Amino acid sequence: MKTDASRAGLGLKVASGLVLLFLYFPLGIIVLYAFTTQSTSFTFPPPGLTLEWFRLAFGRGDMWEAFRLSLTVAGVTTLTAIVLGSLLAGAVYRSRFFGREALAFIVVLPIALPGIVTGIALKSTLTGIAEVPPGFWTIVIGHTTFCIVIVYNNVVARLRRMSPNVVEASADLGASGWQTFRHVILPNLATALLAGGVLAFALSFDEIIVTTFTRGSDPTLPIWIFQQLFRPRNRPLTNVVALIAVTVTIVPVLLAQMLARSADDAGTGMGAGGAPVRARTATTSE
């Protein structure tokens, strides 16, 4: 006879399976129809499978240009968001000043605003008032406005869990400010920065609404896919490119999880117990 715990566990497994099916079944459809022989309409099951659409996609120079632009924009945006977001998190968490809560609200506000509102505001400011020609840097500025929030939230959450005594312990052991940052604070924030950077990269790489208002004549990969959707004969081609985009998004997340797990196993996420040892090592080796 099954116990209540086993029945509850079975129900939880079924519910989890249904949620995963709801989330990933559409992605499975994209993967399936990336191999279909049909070019204008989709029927189930597909009448046949082929790799022809992959050959055509890999031979499209305009697709690779859009892909390189998206990668470059996402990389620069991620680095900028990590620097600015971590600095903002440190200032808001460790400092007490007038308007601190208002500043924290202003920092996280862009992620809650509709993308079209952010896009219109940036277009009016950058290309209208500032007269900056739309292009690579306007896209980076637009993406950074909401990617900073991702890094900021991750770093603030980690700072709140980190004991404030670790910095004092490091100073008591004779470590300088740079040594404390390098050997105590940065290792404690490493996984938070990694998680925030990966999420920022994924958001920037996949963003389309803000990019529509801030880009120049060259499309990013999401915009290129959107443009191809209006050409019925290129539907399987768009599925292939969408599969490439999904792969580019998933791989950094998997790598981040592996690095975070190995960092935790190695003890780089230590709290107050590991800080004095790290600070002592810093003062003796430097």
Provide keyphrases for this structure.
286 residues; mainly alpha; MetI-like fold
Topology record:
Layout: H1 4-33, H2 52-58, H3 61-94, H4 100-112, H5 115-129, H6 136-161, H7 165-172, H8 177-206, H9 209-214, H10 221-228, H11 235-266, H12 275-285
Please tell me about this protein's structure.
With 286 residues, the chain is an all-alpha fold. The chain has one domain (60-280): MetI-like fold (Orthogonal Bundle). It contains 12 helices and no strands. It has helices at residues 4-33, 52-58, 61-94, 100-112, 115-129, 136-161, 165-172, 177-206, 209-214, 221-228, 235-266, 275-285. 30% of the residues are buried.
The span between the termini is: 65 Å
Strand proportion: under 5%
Taking all Cα atoms into account, the compactness measure Rg is 24 Å
How many domains would you count in the coordinates? Answer: 1
Alpha plus pi helix count = 12
- How many strands, which pairing sense, and closed or not: the largest β-sheet? none
Name of the level-1 CATH class:
Mainly Alpha
SSE-based structural type: mainly alpha
What order do the helices and strands follow? HHHHHHHHHHHH
- Overall pLDDT, averaged? 79
CATH superfamily grouping: MetI-like
Unreliable parts = 268-286
Which percent range fits the helix content?
over 70%
Shape: globular
CATH architecture: Orthogonal Bundle
- The CATH topology label is MetI-like fold
How many strands? 0
